[in-house]
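Can you give me the bound-state structure? Components:
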Amino acid sequence: MELTPDTTVLFQVWEIPVNATIVNTWVVMALLTGVSMLTTRNLRPDVPPNRWRTMLEVIVQGIEGQIEEISRRKSHSLLYFVGTLFLFIFVSNLLMVVPGFAPPTASLSTTAALALSVLVAVPIFGITSRGLGGYFKTYLEPSAIMLPFNIIKEFSRGISLAIRLYGNIMSGAVIGAILLSVAPFFFPVLMEMLGLLTGLIQAYIFAILATVYISSATAEPNNSNKIKDIP
Amino acid sequence: MTDLGIIAAISIFTAGLTVSFGAIGPALGEGRAAATALSAIAQQPDASANISRTLFVSLAMIESTAIYCFVVSMILLFANPFWTAVIESAAATGG
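Here's the bound-state model for the whole set.
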């Protein structure tokens, strides 16, 4: 049984082995960019929107609304970063049902890379919003004793993000393989359907956690909205 | 018992133990979270969208502890580093 698509080497380029994870990541990226480029090719005001463009607008506006609801601020850079993460994870989890396609998120190297990008994005967003001193002052809150714990927190966040996504997607494939040998034909199909739901929820959770981490590192825009909420 | 037998027996036993203990805690926690969310929805049906979204996120975060245990047991069963180390050393000595 294979725990990760890293071990299946498809072909070699100048003696560098190219495994299934890399190829499938490029397949997912090509699918996302291809559909988006084909859809937004005729993006002019005089062209009436077709169904593809409407679908993309629904997806992007849905992500924007969720981010605004969670982080309570409008931020386009947050939308680009978190939306990209969500779409990549979601599409690669969705392609799990295609026979012979091992989702790239079932490999620890992909999920560790995604978690690392979140880990790097948090200080970048924080420094651009609060300034260098303002961001590093958040490590000393609520007091200077908490400094080591705040540093540990950053790393444990990254590890838990990576292992959570990897474990969920990998466990779906492993449980399907085990059930195929125990009770074939019908029960594995149900578990695959459950795996689709798990894939959607895990993509959502990864994006939400990235939003929460980044918006807790950035400064509050202004408190006028908060005061308006209280009746 | 050979080295390989001891490693296999302890790995299989520990994998079962890991999954069993890793399933107890998250099961209790998820049950409590779901029950509390249901009673909250029953009291305030207007806030059900907000509550169920938070419930999904928290359920997945609780479940991730079970997933960690599952990953550890899978590594013990299918990608055991000690098993491969013993096999490699046996192959190196020609035994």
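A couple of observations. The mean pLDDT of chain A is 83. Residues 110 and 127 of chain A are 26 Å apart (CA to CA).
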